[in-house]
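Changelog-adjacent note: as of this version, every example in the card shows the full chain rather than a window. The one below runs 90 residues end to end.
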Amino acid sequence: MAPTVSPRIEQKTVCPLPLFLAFELGVNKWKLGFTTGAAQRPRERQVAAGDCPQVREEIERAKQRFGLPEEVRVVSCDEAGREGFWLHRF
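Full-length structure tokens:
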């Protein structure tokens, strides 16, 4: 009797690392720090306070710099205080 052979299904699940974004919020300027993990030197940028289109542009540039796909998840954090949570929802 021949042994039964089950088909081999190859699955590739690649979960890209998230892009981490840290904000330092000031009255006149915001500092942005980007990284994909611990022990990695962050990519630091500065934008005018409240310039959300420029923040979006810097996020896109950071994705390109780290070789991440456009749809990668962005995880943000900042010190408690000035701006509340609207910036993370943005």
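Structural remarks: Strands lie at 19-25, 29-35, 43-48, 74-78.
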